[in-house]
Amino acid sequence: MITTPPDALPDAVGSRRLVQNVIATWWYTVSGVLALEVMVVFLWLTAFIGLGASTWVTTAAAVGGLAWCATTLVLLLQYRHRDDTAGPMVGWRHLLLPLATAVVFGIFSGVVSGIWVIGALPIVQSLMLLNWPAGVRLRMMLTSMALLAGLWFIDWRVVFTDQDADASRSWWVFGFFTVALPAMTVMSLWWWDVLMTLDRARAAEARLGATQERLRVATDVHDLQGHHLQVIALQLELAERLLANDPEAAREQLRLARTSVAEARQGTRDLAMRFRGVPLPDEIANAVDLLRASGTTADASLSSGADQAPAPVLGPVIRETTTNVLRHGGGKWARLSLVEETAAWRYEIANDRASDTSDDRDGSGLDGIVRRVGEAGGDVRIERGKGEFHVIVTVPKGSS
Fold it and tell me: For an engineered disulfide with 175, which of 152, 155, 320, 358 has Cβ 3.0 to 4.6 Å away?
């Protein structure tokens, strides 16, 4: 498993992009459901006009239909924060208004038009938006579609028996979208549920990875310190026994105990450095994953021996330049490469620039890179093109 270093975690910009993507998907789902409902209401109004309904009836149906569509937004907002373990009537006080509106509008539309399916659909559609378990929702959807299809057939036989061919064709279109609305709604909500399941799985995987890493570090620290502490305890115990009869041997054991303490300290320091250092191919893989998670299209190319490149020098450079892309880049694309040359390693990162990014802001985070690479005998080249930004770092082989 690749471990992302703490200073390579996404900054506020990357996190904000992830949140924005989820919000955009949610409003896309909401707008899709509302658009379907508005379209069905429009078909109903067309049917009213075709049946010769008066102007006030048609107007009342239009106003009631739009009010019903608006109140279903409350049900959708309630659905967004659904809990799989909760029932459909959780937060029932917030559900009273939209459900009452659906019942009133359905009864009014059915009575004034004489069309059963128009009276039933608002109630059925509002019930589809409640927090039903997956299996129950599917059975309700199939039952609702069968009910609507039956009512539509009855209405067709009663209302449109004597209508002309054009009216019959319109009635078929009306019937199809009316009967299919619950299925299309459930499909939209299912896509949202899939997205949220994947998002929760991604978050759980990240937490699990961090937990596993902490357990691994804890195990190594326990083994290292446990060994040294056991040795020190034995040496001190032996020194205590020898102190009365052989002071010189006791002092030797004390010296050995002090050496063991120094070894324990050095071992702990080496362990910390080992976990702090990450191979450069993993560093670049982390950077690419990080950029992609923020919504940037990112790719990388590496030489076959990239793990031999000087990680102490280039590791912080990769992390710093990735952070620079997240903060000041345009967020559309980025390319990374680590190439072995004759006597040096060349790392390059290129990305698009944000439209409001000035040269000073672009370069503000690069001073540390220039200083670090300069101390290792390398050089840094920064290129600002039209809509592009390049950082090219060259360090000699064997630098550290």
Answer: 152
